[in-house]
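Here we describe the complex-level prediction in full. Unlike the single-chain runs in Section 2.1, the two entities below were treated as one system.
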Amino acid sequence: MSGIEIAPDHLQPSSFAFTEENLAKAKSTIAKYPERKQQSAVMPLLDLAQRQNGGWVPRAAIEYIADMLEMPSIRVWEVATFYTMYFLAPKGKTKVHVCTTTPCWLRGSDDVVKACKESLGIGMGETTSDGAFSLHEVECAGACVNAPVVQINDDYYEDLNYESTKRLLEAFKAGEPPKPGPLSERRGSEPAKA
Amino acid sequence: MPKLTVDGVEVEVPAGATVLQAIEATGKEVPRFCYHDRLSIAGNCRMCLVEIKPGPPKPAASCAMPAGENMEVFTNSPMVEHARKGVMEMLLINHPLDCPICDQGGECDLQDQAMSYGGGESRYEEMKRAVPDKYMGPLVKTIMTRCIHCTRCVRFIDEIAGVPAIGALGRGGATEISTLEAGIDSELSGNIIDLCPVGALTSRPYEFVARPWELTKTESIDVMDAVGSNIRVDARGPEVLRVLPRLNEDVNEEWISDKTRFAIDGLKRQRLDTPYVRGADGRLKPTSWQAALNVVAEKLKATSPEKVAVIAGDQVDAEAMFAAKSLFEGMGVQSIDCRQDGMKIVPGTPRGGYILNEGLLGIESADRLLLIGADPRREAAVFGARIRKRWLQGGFKVGVIGKIGEQTYPTDTVTMDTAADFLAGASNSMVIVGAGALARVDGAAVLAHARSIATVNDEWCGFGVLHTAASRVAGLDLSFLPGPSGRDVNGIFEGVKSGDVETVFLLGADEIDPQDVKGAFVIYQGAVGDVGAGMADVILPGAAYTEKDGTYVNTEGRAQRAFRAVFPPGEAREDWSIFRALSEVMGAKLPFDDLANLRVQMIEKVPVLGAIDEQNRGEWGDFGQTGPISDEPFISAVQNFYMTCAVSRASPTMAKCVQEFLAVTNKEQDKAHA
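The structure predicted for the assembly as a whole is:
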């Protein structure tokens, strides 16, 4: 159980604004929700800001989004700190999220965690010294049917075990990520062969 | 109207009521931490679990479960007992065992409920979590490791105080309540201390001061504003240690403002505890009561009555004003006034013209509100919260004439000319005139204009005045006002300048510019050495509001009795008894020997002062005086919420609040101007 990690002041940009392209995206996102319910766009906008800012959400972006959606900034902070996919401090370029919730754990997520730690040489919540990888423990990723599962950046890799996890990370290190999905014989979530 | 049974007892509750409310209706208690009947339902502490049939075979949170027809609720079945014990064990997993050093000890919900549902020992062998303490300003101290995440503070600040400053950051076991290290800039922030069911949020000024069982508790009335909040004064020996709210649905519900709660440390500073007389060398010298009263009596006897003036301050009890009025009117003095701010409510104004006729509660039935130079958030913070409560219910618009601070609900800018249009179409509109608008030179014209646009009929009196002085309505009820040939406050100041007024008696009047009475012989009677005492030639030490029994009438015209919690310091005496003593020295003994006797005579003259805790519309009639109204924007009578009286100005806690909240605002203003 770790506390909330917020980037120190010297890393925080003094201001934040969406690029023109992202501003258009933000506006079209806001337009998806009924009038005066624009606050519903807080999650997509935080994600947009995180992508624009190299994988983490600075303080200024939270204030910026709060202003844009006319909501108290503390409400945006609550959302940004609740979800494990938002980072409030710089992390690795490739983010490895390991699910350790019960179904994944029963199917061997301990081995997956071990493989990740060994392969990357870092512990949970840490970043490799070259800034390439960071390792994160997350709660249920919602893919229990293919447990255990790891999310790397935007993609899910499923049906993992110790060996396949090691191979997966080596492939990422080599810059040749495999196709997302199960790394077993299964196609999608079809019944496992007897 | 669903009918259900609770432990076999049948009960009928209104539609929409929860199971918890149904259980309470049968007189049973339900343990809870997160549920509070004035806040939204969170349902996250799980302490209120009960067994409900029919339904899934598991316990249900009674706070969040709507009561249904034919439900059978069990509050003491083995399942319930077991479930609650489990919840308690879970809550205690991360709760430190620091009750002996915790300020909440002895009045802690968790401690109390652990007595019933707690296990004797912990089965938990892992690490307990520790949470860094958060900064929430000079009033609220935090020990966040004790927090059980009920989110009452988050909901209160968001919903009732209307200042969304607190949030729950993080998730699960790592959740932390935080303000992002900023002070809570709300006039009601102290209430989260009462709401916190554990010792996570405690009073910073009261830190490690006392245990609840050491305190003498006195139910009384607050005088920091004109709301008349019902309070409980907790004292130990001669010291008032804290003030807590008391429930009064019609007045303050169960909230009090931060000034009410925290300004009490001003009662320990700069107190006048012995009479003083200014000597030939120009210095105030302590003396005896007899000597001081002799000086005053000689001076008053030597001055002709038309050259004597009396001004009563903002926190004087009705009894003191009645005694003063009886004494001075008996001497033929006509220049007496209870309106030290120069408020233009003249003698002869019907009561309906100077109270909030529909009452503080009345705002909840209004559909439109026009504030004329009134700033409810700072002048009457608890009333401000009630306006916000009304606004949250929808179908309610607030208009503002004048430059007032930001409120906790949206407001429309209105002018005197568009005021009638703003109110048009509303069925129960309310016009509230602030003390700041009435104190101006054109106050009488403002009053007349407000009267002309207010909706007044048999069912509704949409006119009201929001006073800022706790003593004002009682003063007006008592007609503590100039006689036919008397001078009002401004007239008194002019008289001092021209030499027509020689002696000024200030009864707790501290909101006066010393220049205005320069040259006159000033007698000050009051509790705290502030502006009034500084310019006095004789000081008669009086009792503060916590040190005497007294009657106060709030802005809605409700007479309430305050009670003595501690004795006045040193030689200080209750104010009415000082006038009684002075009258004897003067040789014109007032006809009452004790407070009960005084009250009988006072109520005989002014019956509303005897109608304790009653609120009614005042008599209606003509008041105000039509005339030109200046274009100058109205400003609130309260520019600095934390310091409005001698007590709050002497309070170190209030000084810290000014530093924390108002100094920043000034800085921002400077920046904005630059």
